[in-house]
Amino acid sequence: MSRKPTVETRFEQGLFAARWLMAPMYLGLMLALAMLVVVFAKELFHYLPRTFSIEADQGILAILSLIDLTLGANLMLIVVFSGYENFVSKLDTQETVDRPEWMGKVDFSGLKMKLIASIVAISGIHLLRVFMELGKGGPGHAPDLVTVKWMIALHLTFVLSGVLLALMDWLAGKADKH
Hints:
By secondary structure, this protein is mainly α. The protein is built from 5 helices and no strands. The protein is extended and about 75 Å long.
């Protein structure tokens, strides 16, 4: 006994199919990831020849720059994999031996916690770089006190946002158990 699709059924099928409109965005993020790889390589090859001649603090700043780029790339991968699996389609990689453990298990709540944690880490690295620049060079080289205060306020806002998101998830989890 088959029924002809109603307008509502066709509309819902269209809505469901519309999830594929996100696929080009994830492809765009993969291209942006390739851009990050190029920027990372450029930074690395900029500092490698200077390894034995740069001061320790300059070396640390170079490494922090590479870590910052790596965290950004990790964040993009998490968003692409989790977003695609949560909103578009499951990745068919079950046969792959080196499939990361978290793939297919990060829900929207986990995704937002990973996102805010990455943002806090990236913000912290930028703040550390600014602190290391204080007192170096001429007046035009070092960041001014107002900029440092704004960066600290922004970093603390990210930290507070992360704590509040975690608290909301914890409260929602406790409410689901009742």
